[in-house]
Amino acid sequence: MILIMKKRILVIEDEREISMIMRMRLEAAGYAVTEAFDGEEGLSQAKTCRPDLILLDLVLPKMSGMQILDELKRDEKYRFIPIVIVTGLTQDAANHQAAVSKADAYFLKPYDTIELMTTVADFLKDGSPQR
């Protein structure tokens, strides 16, 4: 018997309805999904569950998505995890540019679901997007 491990995705999103929709779509596509609803919980989950990919909002309670992105990309143990920003934040141009330069992919809300799911699948095929 061959056991196939599902790819693990961590969704860090404080808007529970958006998180639920993401979780449902990802699970329907065959992924195992963990959710975190604030920045501190998200960073903790990223370090304990070691996901294969993270979908990250930038505006979060307790710790910003930018802080999470910075910490994970600085740490040798976690920097390989692809981080896809999914945010409604557009006002702060400097923060936006910093996130774009550090993230592996970037989507503004409302995002195109098919494009997001394709990006996730591309990252999880062999660990890097097919672009």
Task: Please characterize this protein's 3D structure.
The protein has helices at residues 16-28, 39-49, 65-74, 93-102, 113-126, and strands at 8-12, 32-36, 53-56, 83-87, 105-108. Helix 3 packs parallel to helix 4. It has a single domain, classed as Response regulator (Rossmann fold, 3-Layer(aba) Sandwich). A 5-stranded parallel beta sheet has the order 2-1-3-4-5, sandwiched between helices. It has 5 helices and 5 strands. It starts with 7 loop residues before the first strand and ends in a 5-residue tail after the last helix. The chain has 131 residues and is of the alpha/beta class. The radius of gyration is 14 Å and the shape is globular.
Q: What CATH architecture would you give?
A: 3-Layer(aba) Sandwich
Q: How many angstroms separate the termini?
A: 35 Å
The number of distinct helices, counting runs of at least 4 residues, comes to: 5
Q: What level of helicity do the residues show?
A: 40-55%
Task: Count the domains.
Answer: 1
Uncertain parts: 127-131
Gross geometry: globular
- Strand percentage: 15-25%
The CATH superfamily label reads: Response regulator
Strand order across the largest sheet = 2-1-3-4-5
| Average pLDDT score | 88
Structural class: alpha/beta
**How many DSSP-defined strands?**
5
What is the CATH C-level name? Alpha Beta
From the 3D structure, determine the CATH topology.
Rossmann fold
Main pleated sheet: 5 strands, parallel
Q: SSE order, as H and E?
A: EHEHEHEHEH
